[in-house]
Design a protein that fits this description.
This protein is of the alpha/beta class and 432 residues long. The chain is built from eleven helices and 20 strands. It starts with a helix and ends in a 10-residue tail after the last helix.
Length: 432
């Protein structure tokens, strides 16, 4: 796949994926087109060597896999992990607010979002709705208003002269989104009922909806070096993982898992602390000692974006460990195990990057006087016992409504993941 095809594919994927539900749907579509069969977790699976399969759990987490023709106990499992969720503003369960003739919606902050960039944007709403049909059937559907239907205007500087020095954002009082003008509040659930593409929908019972910026993803820079988009953390990794699995061979067993709820700690039935990966591994192995041997020969690439060194904030990085955008994927280290990388797994990544042609790699560790974030790598490594390395592409503005990455890094990470899933023999796998 060319650089242009890869970049355009990512932009299209992100545009179609305003929520984790839509991201899961987009991945399911990509996989189905390439011959992957969707499985039902409430049924027994009849897996065949060389078969390609996927499951969707909770509508927002996806696990896809290829059953290797080699015995899984001999070759282990190669796993790529990412996450489908991003920090955002969610619609509260009872969101209607009426103030001075404006109909507003109350918001709840999901994850560690940068709040200031959400002001003065053209916002839409998307997500999943559960509803009752006229026949009494409980149904769910994805919705996306697509058009800009809301905004959170800033307070004018004339009314807050210290705004550029000391303004603090209170999400409870400052971020209620303006939806329209109305003398009387309209039921939000009634509005959702009108949007549903089901004439037999009778009543909206509940919803999980998120605001998102309608500005589409874009390639920018004088030489088209950069990508600007919402949700690059971590849909960029999800997309590259899907592409790598699609292009992988069938000799050994390969898995892609993209969990929801990483941004809030992964503590859910569909998060990385949930049992999805473990339960599929149970189906891929015969259990007992064979399972333990398989796990010891397995390796996971936890792929989640890294912090590139911002030229305006150089002192926020360790001087020796400031990744540069478009200078290659980043191996992430933390002595306190917020990342699962070890010297052995880092060496393996460097080995993969060295042949058949050299790929640039970078190293990230946070300053010794600060703490870094974490991701699904350590959670999976500790929960299942799979040797793991944390890697990612460098980005700016992580957790903003619009993030910033590099086109060349997209290509290099794609190549690295392809090598991981296709190389015949991974060195040290049984001894890592």
């Amino acid at each position: 796949m060319s650089s242009l095809e890869l970049t355009n594919g990512l932009l299209d994927f992100v545009r179609k994926s305003p929520t984790p539900y839509h991201a899961a749907q987009s991945m399911a579509t990509l996989l189905s087109v390439e011959g992957f069969k969707q499985l039902n977790e409430m049924e027994r699976w009849n897996l065949t060597p060389g078969g390609r399969y996927f499951v969707v759990r909770g509508g927002a987490s996806v696990l896809a896999f290829i059953v290797g023709t080699e015995a899984v106990e001999e070759s282990g499992i190669r796993i790529i992990g990412a996450h489908t969720d991003s920090p955002c503003l969610k619609v509260k369960p009872l969101p209607e607010i009426q103030s001075k003739g404006y109909a507003q919606l109350g918001v709840e902050v999901y994850g560690g979002a940068l709040l200031n960039p959400w002001f003065d944007r053209d916002l839409s709403i998307a997500g999943r709705i559960s509803y009752l049909s006229t026949s009494g059937e409980l149904k769910t559907a994805l919705i996306d208003f697509e058009n800009a239907i809301a905004s959170i205007p800033s307070l004018a500087i004339h009314l807050d002269r210290e705004a550029n020095n000391s303004r603090r954002v209170n999400p409870q009082t400052d971020m209620n989104a303006i939806l329209h003008q109305a003398d009387e509040p309209k039921s939000f659930r009634a509005l959702l009922l009108d949007v549903l593409d089901d004439k037999n929908a009778k009543e909206v019972l509940d919803f999980n909806l998120s605001f998102y910026d309608t500005q589409p993803p874009a390639v920018l820079g004088l030489e088209n070096d950069f990508i600007a988009s919402a949700r690059l953390d971590n849909l960029l990794s999800c997309y590259l993982g899907v592409r790598a699995l699609i292009d992988a061979g069938t000799n050994h067993t390969s898995v892609l898992i993209c969990n929801d709820h990483e941004e809030v700690g992964s503590r859910s039935d569909i998060g990385a602390q949930g049992p999805l990966l473990d339960e599929v591994i149970e189906r891929l192995t015969v259990g007992g000692e064979s399972r333990q041997i398989t796990l010891r020969r397995s390796l996971m690439f936890s792929v989640d974006n890294a912090h590139g060194v911002h030229p305006n904030y150089v002192n926020k990085h360790d001087d020796k460990h400031g990744p540069i955008i478009n200078k290659g994927p980043v191996i992430k280290f933390d002595a306190n195990q917020s990342y699962a990388t070890s010297s052995a797994t880092a060496a393996l990544v460097r080995w993969l990057a060295s042949s058949p042609s050299s790929l640039p790699l970078q190293t990230y560790v946070t300053r010794a006087d600060t703490r870094c974030g974490s991701t699904i790598g350590p959670i999976t490594a500790a929960g299942i016992g799979i040797t793991t390395v944390d890697i990612g592409v460098p980005t700016f503005a992580m957790h903003s409504i619009r993030e910033f990455a590099g086109v060349i890094d997209l290509v290099h990470m794609n190549t690295l993941l392809n090598r991981f899933l296709t190389v015949k023999n991974l060195p040290y796998c049984s001894n890592l």
